[in-house]
Amino acid sequence: MAHLEVDLVAADRKVWSGEARMVSAPAADGEIGILPGHAPVLAVLHPGAVRITPTDGSVRHVEVGSGFLSVDDDRVTVVVDSAQDGAGAASTR
């Protein structure tokens, strides 16, 4: 089964990295969903929730500040200025 290689990084740390089935994020012009095989894209992100569905089927929610998302060859890179994951770990500015 195809999967995505995902890296979610804030200004000061790596928030999450691994294989995923899907990623959705708050793009400037609306919610963007990424599945394996997605065309290359570069999107500006607004503050909101990034949702990652790892290959184990769980869902991880991370509240992010502004940033960008890049997709190329099933590799998704999300870079944000701040992030707070569901586990409560925080990163600011």
Automatic annotation (TrEMBL):
Name any GO cellular component annotation: plasma membrane
What coarse category fits the chief subcellular location reported for this protein?
membrane
Localization of this protein? Cell membrane
Kindly list the GO molecular function terms attached to this UniProt entry. Answer: ATP binding; proton-transporting ATP synthase activity, rotational mechanism
Q: Which domain of life is it from?
A: Bacteria
Membrane topology, record value? Peripheral membrane protein
One matching Pfam family, short form?
ATP-synt_DE_N
Q: Where is the ATP synthase F1 complex delta/epsilon subunit N-terminal domain?
A: 4-83
The keyword Lipid biosynthesis is assigned to this record: no
Q: Please provide the record's keywords in A-Z order.
A: ATP synthesis, Cell membrane, CF(1), Hydrogen ion transport, Ion transport, Membrane, Transport
Kindly give the CDD domains that the UniProt entry links to this protein. F1-ATPase_delta
HAMAP family per record? ATP_synth_epsil_bac (MF_00530)
Query: What protein family is recorded?
Result: Belongs to the ATPase epsilon chain family.
The protein's job, in short, is: Produces ATP from ADP in the presence of a proton gradient across the membrane.
UniProt cross-references to NCBIfam families, sorted A to Z: ATP_synt_epsi, PRK13442.1
Under the subunit heading, UniProt states:
F-type ATPases have 2 components, CF(1) - the catalytic core - and CF(0) - the membrane proton channel. CF(1) has five subunits: alpha(3), beta(3), gamma(1), delta(1), epsilon(1). CF(0) has three main subunits: a, b and c.
Which protein are we looking at? Answer: ATP synthase epsilon chain
Q: What is the lineage of its organism?
A: Bacteria, Bacillati, Actinomycetota, Actinomycetes, Micrococcales
